[in-house]
Amino acid sequence: MITFPGTAAAVVTRKILRLVGKGATTLPGKAAIRLSPSIIREKSRGKHIITITGTNGKTTTSHMISEMLNYLGYDIINNISGANLASGVATTLICGKDEMMRANGRSKGTIYVLETDEAAYAKIAGDLCPEVSVITNLFRDQLDRYGELTHTRDCIADGLNKTDAIAIVNSDDSLVASLGKGREDKTVFYGMGKKDMLRNNKLYPDRKSILPASPDAVYCPDCHIRYEYVSRSFGHLGDFKCPSCGFSSPISRFEVRYDLKQSPSNEDYPFAISDNLSGLTREMKLKIPGSHNLYNTCAAVSAVTVMLTKLGLSQEEAFEQATEAAGHVKAAFGRMEKIDVGGKKLCILLVKNPAGFDRSLSFVSEAEDAAGLMLLLNSNIADGKDVSWIWDVDLESKAEDLPENIFISGERWGDMLLRIEYAGMNVTESGDMSRAMEILNRALEMTPEGKCLYVMPNYTAMLSLRAALVHEYGLKEFWK
Description:
480 residues, alpha/beta, Protein-Tyrosine Phosphatase, Chain A, 37% helix, globular
């Protein structure tokens, strides 16, 4: 009875919002928490829960985990819309069964896969009591909300301290890897194979998928001494070591084996994942292109393997099933999602911070089907009001490899136009958010058949654009 008022309020609110065509992803949860403050804790009891948090890759990784477990016969309930604050998580716990991803055939049980905002994780992790918690990475993002990265790292650490979850931790991110200190028996590391990363740095030093270290997290938080890097994947991710205290990139249980003879920007890029605990290695093909998705895929395989082990499978069988299921995932909305439009392709890549923008630009610079690029920049609260981060993105080194036709829109289109012009590139057409669909359709007209227009919006620009695409091209709503 303690949660009845909140549950009832959420159910009624959701029905009303859906009747008028709204997503109903957060308001039902807000009403529930207001009336029943303990509702997240009560609704989480006895459930199998995986959480995913971090700066970049949360939605893609949670989507991968969901599709993999669903393929393996589990019913999945997730916050697919990306509503990852306490209100969105509460909505999913209360109303998620109405949109459950049902397994084909007889279900093996229900698993909740919940994307969680980094700051919110500290507040709700103890109530959720997840069995598995994935931490992807930490990059500068919305500094007006999160503050410095060490604060974000401390928020996640606080959340982990309140749970008995097995933490799936990126060993190549120095801040994230430090979460394993003192939690060695409850931490599983994943990352790029150190030998492969070193070899690729030596063989392909100028490749766009390998970037100089960003200033995000290159100093040891204990010694304040700059890390020394043996090799890097991108940004501050790599094989690092503090020359003072000796803290270094941990040995990963799950490692990506890869070779940059081909570009990860191309579909079905071949790579492998090794489970160093069981000694197994499985050859795979990257189902969602982009070098950053090697990390997301490895994180998903790690999480699914650990969860299946908790559910009773042997380590070997769990890894075999996880890697096999990873071959059946598809892109989530706004994350390498390709849409057919009259024989042409439209690909949406969400960008919301310097590291994500760099990754997406690197991807497009190497994509063989890229015929145009459209950038949309907003500055609402959900985006971060400060857009100066676009000047931290290395556009100059990629300018000559990006498509000739560049289009710009969004509420802060002028800021983006100035940034592009300073990088030495010409803009084909630009205008504010009210002209976004007009400009996009113009860009599509200039896209040859069989080629792709790549669209990079930040968060609220993506939601606005996608709502327009639902109306014009019949896409399904983002919450479906």
